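A sample copied in:

***
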Amino acid sequence: MSSTPPDATALTGKRFLVVEDEFLILLDIQSTLETAGAMSVITASRVQDALNAISDSEKIGARFDGAVLDLKLDHESSAPIAERLAAAGVPFIFLTGAPTDVEAARQFGSAPVVGKPFDAATLLSGVQIAMAKS
C-alpha cells in the first residue's frame, strides 16, 4: 500500500478484525487501519481463529466496529465469519485477488469488495463505505 489518504483519523477509536492469510498483506492492512486512527486491530489468518476472536470480543462487551475479510483463506472461505459478523450487525469488507470470487460475496448484499492489489486509500474507502451503511 502506498500512502494514507488525507482523512487519516477517520477510524479514530474504532476496533477492527482483520482476517488475511498472507502475513505481509495482513501487516499492511493492520498498519493502514492504525494509521487511520483505529484503537485496536485484532488479526487472524484462519476461520476458527477469527470466530474465536469474535466470541472473545462479545464476552467482554467490546464488539468490533468493522472487519476486513480475505474472501479466500488458504483452503477455507471467510463466509462463516461474514455470516457471524452480519448477524451481529458488524460492517465488513471483502478482499479478493480473483475477480471470479466476487460472486461469492454477493450473498452478503452490500458488503464492499476490494480487489488485490490495493492501496491504502482504496482499502480505507471500502471500510468507510461499509461502516456508513451500518
